[in-house]
Design brief:
Blueprint: H1 3-6, H2 21-29
């Protein structure tokens, strides 16, 4: 069972990962879409780095 199938009732799934061609292609192949493809922006703040 694909993990996305298990949680198909969850309205929003957010994933953060490194920006490599291999990683991007993997998640696109699995139904994920880059945030900029939605014509929006995402923000993040990491504390304690």
């Amino acid at each position: 069972m694909l993990i996305l199938e298990r949680y198909k009732t969850v309205r929003q799934i957010v994933l953060m990962t490194e920006q490599t061609e291999k990683t991007i292609n993997f998640y696109k192949k699995n139904g994920m879409i880059k945030v900029e493809d939605y014509n929006c922006v995402a923000f993040v703040r990491f504390n304690g780095n």
